[in-house]
Design brief:
This protein is α/β, with parallel strands linked by helices and 323 residues long. Helices cover 45% and strands 11% of the residues. The strands form 2 sheets. The protein has a 5-stranded mixed β-sheet. Strands 1-7 form a two-stranded antiparallel sheet. A hairpin with a 5-residue loop joins β2 and β3. It comes from Culex quinquefasciatus. This is CRAL-TRIO domain-containing protein.
């Protein structure tokens, strides 16, 4: 993976108009640079112009109060929108407002939090590595999460903490990601953790606010009790996203479309799940300062409240301690 200040545990300025902007240093391999050109239309000139545009826009923005302006942060949004500048700026707006509206999901992304440590230890979320097409592959094993111990808010916060730890990785920004969701052995309790508003808001976040290019989603062994959830996800997904979601009745069927060399041993691959978890734990530990510092980002959220569903069925107040 490309080394970043975040991965090294560094902190970033959140001054929206710093006296001096951090310079971009390109440490991409020739292969990654070529992939960025083909996939995103990115070259040195496009990148430089995009960063300058976003910095000028942030500096003038009447509602943004505090925001990172370092290159790797802004490139999250530029690359996610293939350097379409208005769309990249809109995504950043929604990302900042999303973090404030849904604080229970996005604040205190602390790897040392007891619930976050327990989520890591379940071996339920495994970042497998980069496949032959340059895409980051992640495996979610639903059955590993104890539905009696974790709420949807724990799992939402853990998911976003894990994603944030990879957002600044330039290879992930360029190549995008592939998600494998293994539902084999999942129970009714797992599928009733999430309310309609949770699903709708997560899909809205994925479409408009999360700086990740989802290339494929492979759902394995979705039981009949989970079919309604699957239908809801498809209803809320964009037409483009629907074309990227694949349902497999068996693991054997799914493996045909995956890079098997990245899979854990029990999936026919060669990796030990314990080693993958240890790499994730180390990554989160090294990036802890940067993850926690995200809480310093600030936007006046009122103008954007209508973007998000905040119905009465939310039940838990934002900012409430989860214990």
């Amino acid at each position: 993976m490309t080394t970043t200040a975040a991965a090294a545990g560094g902190r970033f300025s959140v001054n929206k108009c710093p006296p001096e902007y951090q310079e971009y240093v390109c440490d991409l391999s020739d292969g990654d640079r070529q992939l960025a050109k083909v996939e995103l239309g990115e070259d040195d000139q496009v990148r430089t112009q995009g960063l300058q545009h976003m910095r000028d826009w942030i500096g003038r923005h009447p509602h943004i109060r505090k925001c990172r302006t370092d290159p790797v942060f802004l490139l999250r949004f530029l690359r996610a929108r293939k350097f379409n500048l208005p769309q990249a700026c809109e995504m950043l707006e929604r990302y900042l407002s999303m973090r404030q509206v849904f604080r229970i999901w996005f604040e205190n992304l602390d790897p040392e939090d007891k619930y976050m440590k327990q989520c890591v230890a379940t071996e339920g979320a495994l970042p497998l590595g980069v496949d032959k097409r340059g895409r980051m592959v992640g495996l979610i094993r639903v059955r590993n999460f104890d539905a009696a111990k974790f709420t949807c808010h724990h799992l939402g916060r853990f998911t976003h903490m894990a994603l944030e730890s990879f957002y600044d990785d330039q290879r992930v920004q360029i190549g995008g990601g592939v998600a494998i969701v293994d539902c084999q052995g999942a129970t009714m309790a797992h599928f009733t953790l999430f309310k309609l508003s949770d699903i709708r808001n997560f899909m809205e976040c994925l479409k408009h606010a999360l700086p990740v290019r989802v290339q494929e989603v492979h759902v394995i062994g979705l039981p009949r009790i989970g079919a309604a959830i699957g239908d809801l996800i498809l209803n809320f997904a964009s037409a483009e996203m629907k074309r990227r979601i694949f349902f497999h009745s068996t693991l054997e069927d799914a493996v045909k479309q995956l890079d098997q060399s990245l899979l854990p041993v029990e999936y026919g691959g060669v990796q030990d799940a314990r080693d993958i978890v240890e790499r994730l734990r180390k990554r989160l530990e090294d990036g802890r300062d940067t993850l926690i510092q995200l809480d310093e980002l600030e936007i006046d959220g009122e103008p954007y409240a209508a973007f998000w569903n905040q119905g009465q069925d939310e039940d838990v107040e934002f900012g409430m301690e989860i214990d």
